[in-house]
Amino acid sequence: xxxxxxxxxxxxxxxxxxxxxxxxxxxxxxxxxxxxxxxxxxxxxxxxxxxxxxxxxxxxxxxxxxxxxxxxxxxxxxxxxxxxxxxxxxxxxxxxxxxxxxxxxxxxxxxxxxxxxxxxxxxxxxxxxxxxxxxxxxxxxxxxxxxxxxxxxxxxxxxxxxxxxxxxxxxxxxxxxxxxxxxxxxxxxxxxxxxxxxxxxxxxxxxxxxxxxxxxxxxxxxxxxxxxxxxxxxxxxxxxxxxxxxxxxxxxxxxxxxxxxxxxxxxxxxxxxxxxxxxxxxxxxxxxxxxxxxxxxxxxxxxxxxxxxxxxxx
Length: 314
Hints:
By secondary structure, this protein is mainly alpha-helical. It has one domain: Rhodopsin 7-helix transmembrane proteins (Rhopdopsin 7-helix transmembrane proteins, Up-down Bundle), CATH 1.20.1070.10. The protein is 74% helix and 3% strand. It contains 10 helices and 3 strands. Helix 1 (26-53) packs antiparallel against helix 2 (60-89), helix 5 (140-166) packs antiparallel against helix 7 and helix 8 (233-266) packs antiparallel against helix 9. The N and C termini lie far apart (65 Å).
């Protein structure tokens, strides 16, 4: 992008439109947003409470799931209340600093979730390929270190974006056609050259999410190879069943994101509100459905949920 002449004015306040072109239907859109947020809050909070309070669930798989639930809470809380404020109260005004803060937490939490899914794939790999060494490999100390690395990687890679945006002069329109702020969506309203932003964003994507997808794919290739070498069909089915929830969550997390990126890149004739709705699906669906998937597919969690919600039921 070429550098344009500055007007001498750099916007410090922006206005989020919500879903462009469908402003008159915002009240209707608020219903699924509110329901999904309520389910995400209840489901993930309950999941974290059960895993932390039940010693029988202090296993690597459930500890990683607890991390995922915490990231889901951060992701949905960072985005959905802002969208509901736009839908209900037309409160789309947001300062530049607040906008950058929001996109920082959105992008870093998304990368955290990707890292946690990779850690969960590693957990399934060890459980199936090295079952006798599972507890000696995945110790609480190692799980803690993995959590710290995920945290440092996600926040460390996104932190420079704050300075990449702060250096820009925003002299174009201050109306953002979205329900929340995101890196390139904000940068493109600058009159400066944003090639550094674009290339750094590409570097972050390739070194985190794309790398995670490749490693998850490799781990599941090893898992499938190990499973099909199991002579017993029942044991083979049981091994695959332990991966069912994780695979469902992987598809739910990466699927809408990949589809959204493809439509953003190649769907230039697609209406803007479709792009915004797809981006919101990436934010709304995983936090809402992840606890449901694990609650239904994992017997240990389902039993504890029943015990917590209906203590008199035996």
